[in-house]
Specification:
5-stranded mixed beta sheet; Purple Acid Phosphatase, chain A, domain 2; alpha/beta
C-alpha cells in the first residue's frame, strides 16, 4: 500500500498544484490531507475547492487543522454579529484571518472536517493521521520533542502515526510506532522553500516513510499575495507571512513574542512594529 500524506497548504495554490501533480505521478492508493488547507496565504477558496474536488473525484481523505478552526470560529462570529466582531485594538492582529474568513463565508460547511483519518492493513496495522497530535490541533511534534512527550501525543499508539502542524518534517520511531511529521506543502519552516509531503508505504516488514520535496513556482506564489489583494487588504502582518514564504522560516511567532505588547500598549503602531522587525531580519 502507498499513501501520500500532505499538510499545511496554507492557501498556497501553486505549491498545492505542484504537489498534486507529483502525487499523481507516484500513483498512491490513497491521499490524506492533514489539515491547515486555508489561512496565512493568498488563495484560500481555491485551495479548499481543489481538495474538495479531489475528495469527490479521487477519494482524497480530508481532516481539519487549527487554521480551519480559527477561520470557522470567525465566520460564525461574523454571521452572528451586525458589527465587526473583533475588538478595534486587536483588529490589525486579525486582519489576515478576517480577509480569509470573508473569502470563505459561503463555504463554511466545507471547513467542518474530521479530527483524524485512519487506514488499516492486514490485522490491526493502523496508519493514523491527525493534524498535530492526539492531544489537540495545536500540540505539535517537533524534532526536539522528548520520547515521553511523544508517547503521550500518539496514544493510543498505532503502527504508524503521521502529522503536520509544525512545518518541520521528521521521521522517527518510538517503541513500535513509526512517527512522521510530513512538513508543509505551502509554508515550510525548515529553511527549504520546496514543498514537502510524506510518502508512506506498507510492505511485509511494516510501515515506512520518506519526506518528498517538490520544487514549484515560488515567484508566482509570491505574486499571488499582491494579485489576490491579500497583501493590500490583509494588513501589515501579511508582509511577515510573505517573508516566511520567501525564507522558509517561522517569523510570525517571533514577531508576536517581541512586538505584540508594544503594539497593544500603543508604544508602536502595527506598521512600525512590522517595519522594525523586517529591517532586523536583513
Amino acid at each position: 500500500m502507498k499513501v501520500a500524506v500532505i499538510a499545511d497548504i496554507h492557501a498556497n495554490l501553486i505549491a498545492l498544484q505542484a504537489v498534486a501533480a507529483d502525487i499523481e505521478h507516484w500513483n498512491p492508493d490513497k491521499v490524506i490531507v492533514a489539515g491547515d488547507i486555508v489561512n496565512r496565504g493568498p488563495r484560500p477558496a481555491e485551495c479548499l475547492q481543489f481538495v474538495k474536488e479531489k475528495e469527490r473525484s479521487t477519494g482524497w481523505l480530508l481532516l481539519g487543522g487549527n487554521h480551519e478552526d480559527f477561520v470557522l470560529k470567525l465566520i460564525r462570529e461574523l454571521q452572528n454579529s451586525r458589527q465587526n466582531p473583533i475588538e478595534p485594538r486587536h483588529y490589525d492582529f486579525y486582519r489576515p484571518i478576517y480577509w480569509t474568513a470573508k473569502k470563505l463565508i459561503r463555504a463554511a460547511d466545507s471547513l467542518k472536517l474530521p479530527f483524524a483519518q485512519s487506514l488499516f492493513v492486514d490485522t490491526g496495522n493502523e496508519l493514523r493521521v491527525v493534524h498535530a497530535s492526539m492531544r489537540g490541533n495545536r500540540d505539535g511534534i517537533y524534532p526536539e520533542t522528548t520520547d515521553s512527550t511523544l508517547r503521550d501525543q500518539i496514544q493510543p499508539a498505532p503502527a504508524a502515526f503521521c502529522v503536520g502542524h509544525t512545518h518541520r518534517p521528521l521521521i522517527r520511531r518510538i517503541d513500535e510506532t513509526l512517527v512522521a511529521n510530513v512538513g508543509s506543502v505551502g509554508l515550510p519552516f525548515d529553511g527549504d522553500t520546496r514543498a514537502a509531503y510524506g510518502r508512506v508505504t506498507w510492505n511485509r516488514n511494516g510501515w515506512h516513510a520518506e519526506i518528498r520535496r517538490v520544487t514549484y513556482d515560488l515567484r508566482q506564489a509570491e505574486r499571488d499575495f499582491s494579485q489576490t489583494g491579500f497583501l493590500a487588504e490583509g494588513g501589515p502582518l501579511v508582509q511577515v507571512m510573505l517573508s516566511e514564504l520567501r525564507s522558509a522560516r517561522s517569523l510570525l511567532y517571533v514577531w508576536t513574542k517581541h512586538y505584540e505588547t508594544p503594539v497593544l500598549s500603543g508604544h508602536l503602531t502595527m506598521e512600525q512594529a512590522v517595519a522594525d522587525y523586517l529591517i532586523s531580519l536583513v
